Amino acid sequence: MKTNSPIRILWLLSLFLFGIQTHATENYDSNSIIANTNDGNNYCSANGGATTDEHIGRVQLGTIDNVSTTNSSGYSDFTNISTNLTKGLTNTITLTSVMTSTTQYPEQFKVWIDYNQDNDFEDQGELVVDQNVTGDATTSKDFTVPQNAANGSTRMRVRMNGLDTGGVNSPCGSGVFGEVEDYTIIIVGSGEEDTQAPSTPTGLTASNITDTSVLLSWNAATDNVGVTGYDILRNNIVISTVTATSSSITGLTANTTYQFNVRAKDAAGNVSVAGNVISVTTTDGTTPTPTYCTANSNNASEEFISRLQLGSIDKTSTSESNGYSDFTSESTNLSRGSSNTITITPTWTGSVFSEAYSVWIDYNQDGDFEDASEQVWTQTATRNTSVSGTFTIPVNANTGITRMRVIMRFNTIPSSCGSFNFGEVEDYSVSITDSKSSITTHKVATVRLYPNPVTKTLTIALKDSKKISYEIVDMLGKIVSKGKTASSINVTNLRKGVYSIKISEGSNTHYKRFIKN
User: Fold this and answer.
1) pTM for this prediction
2) How far apart, in whole angstroms, are the C-alpha atoms of residue 192 and residue 18?
3) N or C: which terminus of the chain has fewer CB atoms within 10 Å of its end residue's CB?
4) Bridge partners of residue 97, in order along the sequence
């Protein structure tokens, strides 16, 4: 017997002085019945006595997962907590003891279930757990619900008893140390009796599609007993089973089409009809080129942009009949934090009109000009023969090639999208780089790319032919290809769009742009 708990010693001494035997066989009074008002059933009373040294800390069975603290009465009514158990199926119950004293006492766990619902735990097979543990411990036990168990709600009693006190180990009566907890169990029909399949899951959808994964979601199915899981089918083959109504499917192949549907099942093994089939195509491993809103003037015959100068861009042009010019093949490098000056020269074919201007750069490369600071410069209506403005590239702008839109509009500062009556719209490319110091300027003749646009093989012509390193970056700043070459690069696998290429030869660095057809 352990002697390091004064309270425990006093309990044992009082039992001895009053001649009370603590053995369960003498302490159990089968006629001791109390009314239990929580559910209308009458079960014998039980408590663990003192919980000062130990108590039940956790009970886990089915959907029951109850963590509890000590109860001074030695009894806790948890009959508001329940789980379904199916006749003929095996279940695992897990019990955890907690020591509130420093001494690790030996304990006995017993669990009873009133299978025939006669308000006692005395019938054969109703004792489902009899396990001993020591101190803070967790123990598990498997048991099978009998086929002749009565359907419906019934009582489960969990008792933890201090073995060193010789206390009660029957379902009724008061113990010396330990605790008693009551729960509700709902017995449902066995697999042989349950032949009804769950309803068909509906509303299957796909989201968050990437190169290798997709998130599937669907509406919950119903069942006469209860849905226990969902089979996910890919191309008519079950690839996983889950209990939730969504699942992330991984390990897919880029640029591949898959067929998915879902079916429900219950504990008896009944399986529903598979739900709606959806087709999912994974992305192809590259970043798509952003699609920008359209903009144009309805009449560029009387005034238009005839020259634009920014960095290495110095583009002269004539009037376009549709009021829009795609000059995205023209590009210049602009470094983060740098100050840059843009100059626009208008031409009037007749009378001189007042023109207003605006310039946008898609700094975050999301396919629009709506974000803060992306309207980089404006000029109110003027008849000046050229206009200039200065702007600074934000230090947090995304690196790589992006779109610059320049609009001249009669008398009104233009918006980035839509049509207007007089003026012109021109689009260009700019390559945002890390810093000014990272760029080495070269004469145009030093490095040349051809053909441009390119379909299969991009040739790099250097003034002094030598082996170089290269990095190809897409419109979102993602490196899509890199390596070393003496003269050419195979770009067949690149998607159509505009790319920048960084060419390194010794201490020299070149930044160029090309279009992939």
Assistant:
1) 0.37
2) 55
3) N
4) 56, 137
